[in-house]
Amino acid sequence: MTDIQAAISAAASGMRAQTTRMRIAAENVANANSTGDNPNEEPFRRRIPLMETTTLTSGAMGVRVRGASLDMGQFRQEYNPSHPAAGEDGYVRLPNVDSLVEMMDMREATRAYEANLNMIEAARTMTARALDLLRR
Predict the structure, then answer these.
(1) CB-CB contact of 68 with 47 (8 Å)
(2) What is the pLDDT of residues 34-45, one digit of tens each?
(3) pTM value?
(4) Radius of gyration of the chain (CA)
(5) Are 44 and 34 in contact (CB under 8 A)?
(6) Helix/strand number for the chain, H first, E second
């Protein structure tokens, strides 16, 4: 496998990882207000993608998502005694999701995805130029 193919392979692994990261952030935002059905149930818990380096079949170093861990941070609380999930004190536990943090993570993942896409485009352009030179 050529260096250009290895570069494309590494960038593609980055794109796959960033896609998973964006999906997890979208799931977090979608569940930002999901509570339990009763006071004894926990609300949705924020998920964090776990990424690790890996050696690709091309020999290049890439990245993969190993899974997602749960954010064990504190739940938000809101006073709403009429809610079915309200405790005896009238407070409802809400997910530990901060939409602003999730949107920033989404933006960072989008930029990393675009950077990997630019790497693939640059490798493709280099290959096309080399072929043009060989045709002459």
Answers:
(1) yes
(2) 998 888 899 999
(3) 0.86
(4) 22
(5) yes
(6) 2, 4
